[in-house]
Design a protein that fits this description.
300 residues; alpha/beta; eight-stranded parallel β-sheet; three-stranded mixed β-sheet
Length: 300
């Protein structure tokens, strides 16, 4: 991932470029539009991808054309969080989540800048179109044991920010289920807590739903090896289900491995409806209602 750093006084020019590698970088064709609009509640539109990079305006227009009415743009460090807040302030179809990603927290700590970074997130969280702290949490897959204390420190600080500002929190949880849940119990979860790209099983889904958390399903629920996610979906109350892309990552089948973007949300939504055995329009209406309950209205 290559990065052009943002100017704090003008974040609009910030961009990251995803590594192209040997994968298929052609954009998938647009799916059939949904009749009832939904929202992508977690995406990273500051990351350019594909054989023909698409800017924010084009991505939002493509999404609107297939029934995706808005997105929650998530940050993961100071620069991407500033860009996310700018995007939300500049576009009525965007709300923002801001945070220091758990895999970034150890580097900030080592550099002696974690407190500074958290203070920036706290400042951004006060903006009216920043509606979530995220993505924050714990990741024991990419961070070794030496980095865990910094992750925990950062996670707890982000929980405090979300509660003080009265906004939602989006959790990144990778190979850290027990530690994430223990932290939420010990510190106290924000009123609106979302497990972004839920990665647990049915037992964890029941546990989270019992505590009023929302579970957000991404394109990996369509992957052949993701039966645990389909089992979790099956036991999650419909009023606790959200949908996301985590774009440009986790592109749903049949486009797995190719670039992802909010306009592909309908692929995942149709899969969810088929798995749940419910009417597509009814599911879309429920997903939209759930999203607005968590993040509030996109427009006044």
């Amino acid at each position: 991932m290559t990065t052009d750093r943002t100017d704090p006084t003008d974040p609009s020019g910030y961009v990251r470029q995803r590594e192209q590698s040997a994968r298929d970088v052609r954009w998938p064709d647009a799916p059939e539009p949904l009749r009832v609009a939904v929202y992508d509640n977690h995406t990273h539109l500051e990351i350019e991808d594909g054989d023909e990079p698409r800017g924010l305006d084009e991505q939002l227009a493509l999404a609107a054309g297939v029934g995706v009415a808005g997105v929650v743009q998530a940050g993961g460090d100071i620069d991407s969080s500033r860009w996310s807040a700018w995007a939300a302030a500049s576009h009525p179809a965007v709300l923002a989540a801001v945070a220091i990603h758990p895999n970034e927290a150890p580097a900030y700590k080592t550099a002696g800048r974690l407190d500074e970074a958290i203070a920036v997130i706290d400042e951004l969280a006060a903006q009216p179109r920043v509606r979530a702290v995220g993505e924050t949490g714990l990741d024991f897959f990419r961070t070794d044991a030496d980095g865990i204390p910094a992750q925990v420190e950062s996670f707890e600080a982000h929980i405090d920010i979300a509660k003080r500002h009265g906004i939602a929190m989006q959790i990144h949880d990778r190979d850290a289920h027990d530690a994430v849940l223990e932290t939420l119990e010990r510190v106290g979860a924000p009123e609106r807590t979302v497990f972004h790209c839920f990665s647990g099983d049915a037992d964890m889904a029941r546990y989270c739903a019992d505590r009023g958390y929302w579970l957000s399903f991404a394109g990996n629920v369509t992957f052949k090896n993701a039966q645990n996610l389909r089992d979790a979906l099956a036991v999650t109350p419909r009023e606790r289900i959200l949908v996301e892309t985590d774009a440009p990552f986790l592109t749903p089948v049949p486009h797995r491995g190719r670039p992802n973007a909010p306009y592909l949300v309908p692929v995942t939504v149709r899969f969810l409806a088929a798995e749940l055995g419910i009417d597509l329009d009814d599911l879309c209406a429920q997903l939209a209602q759930n999203t607005l309950e968590v993040y509030g209205a996109f427009t006044d």
